[in-house]
Amino acid sequence: MNWQPSLRVGGIIALLTISLVGCNPEASYSPQEIIDQALQETKELESYYGEYKWDMGKTGIATVKEWMKDGKRRIEMSFNDEDVIAVNDGKQIITYSKKENTASIMAFENGELEEFMGASAKDNAQVLLNFVKDSHDIAIAGEEKIAGRDAYHITAKAQKKNTLLGDIEVWIDKKTWLTLKTITTNAGNVTQQEYTKLEINKKIDDALFAYDIPKGATIEQMDTVDQTTPTTIDEVKKQLGDFLMVPEDNGLTLATILDLKVEERPEFSFEYEKEEQPAFSVSVYKVVSNFTTFGGDLANEEDINVRAKKGTYMDLGDRFIISWYENGYQYSILTENPEFTKEELLTYAEKMTIVQ
User: Fold this and answer.
1) What domains are defined for the chain?
2) Are the C-beta atoms of 97 and 103 separated by less than 8 Å?
3) For residue 91, what pLDDT is reported?
4) How buried is residue 322: exposed, middle or buried, by Cβ count under 10 Å (0-12/13-18/19+)?
5) Are 66 and 47 in contact (CB under 8 A)?
6) The predicted structure's pLDDT at residue 115
């Protein structure tokens, strides 16, 4: 689920409720069939209460309590010296940090919340699966009990090093298809999330999903929709000046230009198609004076040369991104089609010319 709390704990809450849900628990499945089943809707799991620990290695260990009923959800998390409550009441998402005494509210129109949140994190799981199925070898490692429940143990081994998602292990409940335990290993960093208690179809009071923000708290109203808007080359030129752009040739066409509405600076994305299919996007913005050049600091980054400049290549599983700094501008090319290779995108980068 895409919880949006204060900046300090935003990344943590955003990942709290990613789970896989499905149906038909009695059959025998291949690893891919199990995952496909886990991504389906279920009518059996109407509610549950769970407790789990999230071990983030050197960062610390979070303890979490979670209530779910009819798509509504409440999470209470303790992490180091931080206590956070996040509540989805079906109309809005409220997140409150006790230490900072701050709250954020995201209100939704009819139907928007369901679209934004996805179905029991199914959309988030599908994004993960899109990474895993092409870049990992998936296998069933056996069946085990987690929190007293029978679960499939599934492993996903990365086919190559330095990918965004390293080795992954998941334990999926055989009856509800909830993910009961997850272990991820990437560049020597290991994180583990495991339910220690799970009560399925538990009777839950609706009052749990009606959260009153404490008096005196600082409240921030947050946007709920994508703020990007189409724009024109003339407008980009007005904002950025003489920037580089990939020319249209050999079946490559510019489908649209998006103003990314970044608060700190003007930033734009050029969306390209080839033979009427998505190809790649190129984002560009002017760099501020305190810009730090690329160094490939992330585990899944490697240093490369782009247009005789120092840049980075980042493998995202079935996609990748090439970024570099040139003449006061930051450029990033992101693949939208898995058939494109790194060499092809570097060739397109070499063809870029200044828009007069």
Assistant:
1) 10-221 (2.50.20.10), 229-354 (3.30.200.100)
2) yes
3) 80
4) buried
5) no
6) 44
Cα dist from 147 to 50, 72, 113, 172, 195, whole Å: 10, 23, 31, 12, 6
**Burial grade of 154 (CB within 10 A; 0-12, 13-18, 19 or more):** buried
C-alpha to C-alpha distance for 146 and 237, rounded to whole angstroms: 57
CA 116/CA 2 separation, integer angstroms: 7
136 forms beta bridges with: 158
Between CA 87 and CA 69 the distance in angstroms is 12
Of 67-71, 123-127, 188-192, 333-337, the range with the highest mean pLDDT is: 333-337
In 3D space, the residue among 170, 168, 165 whose CA is nearest the CA of residue 181 turns out to be 170
Dig out the tokens for 45 from the structure.
């799991």
Q: Are the beta carbons of 130 and 94 closer than 8 angstroms?
A: no
**Model's pTM, two decimal places?**
0.60
Six-digit token pair at 133? 């199925």
Residue 122 has pLDDT above 50, yes or no: no
**Tokens 């020319």 correspond to what residue?**
247
